[in-house]
Amino acid sequence: MLPGCTDSASAVKAWLEFAAKGRHRDLQRMCREWPFFQMLLSNMDMLLAKSDIAIASRYGRACLRRRAARPCVWPVARGMAGYTIDALQTIMGQETLLESNPLLARSIRHRFPYLDPLNHMQIEL
Q: Which partner from 27, 69, 95, 124 sits 20 to 30 angstroms from 35, CA to CA?
């Protein structure tokens, strides 16, 4: 699911680079006024809060067969994940992920200590 978020961020980045200065305000207005766009961003917000790029890169390294591709794939993914979070927070007017849903943010934070060991075991196996 993480690639879908980074693809969305690529679209936002292309829009902001192509469009005139201040076009991020159009996206902020769409977030306020268009329920579909608001739900899309809300889902991305939740997905990014649940994601851990370090674990994702470990999964990726375990899955990639060609060693030559390893160095170039994950720095790009890491960079896009950071850009995605920044763009999402700017559009939604948030300083942190899930700022508008603190109960869900706390629930996700509390489950990481249980899920992280399972992820690392699965990667090793």
A: 95
pTM here?
0.78
- Residue 92 DSSP class: H
Residue 56 domain-assigned?
yes
Which residues span the domain enclosing 74? Answer: 42-125
Distances (CA, A) of 93 to 33, 59, 67, 117, 120: 14, 32, 40, 33, 34
With the C-alpha atoms ordered 44, 98, 19, 72, is the resulting torsion angle positive or negative?
negative
Calpha distance 21→31 (Å, rounded): 18
List the chain pLDDT tens, one digit each, 125 residues.
Answer: 666 666 777 787 787 777 666 778 888 999 999 999 999 999 989 988 988 888 887 877 777 655 655 555 566 667 777 888 888 898 999 999 999 999 999 999 999 999 999 999 988 88
In a domain, 15, yes or no: no
Tally the domains of the chain. 1
Give residue 125's identity as a one-letter amino acid code.
L
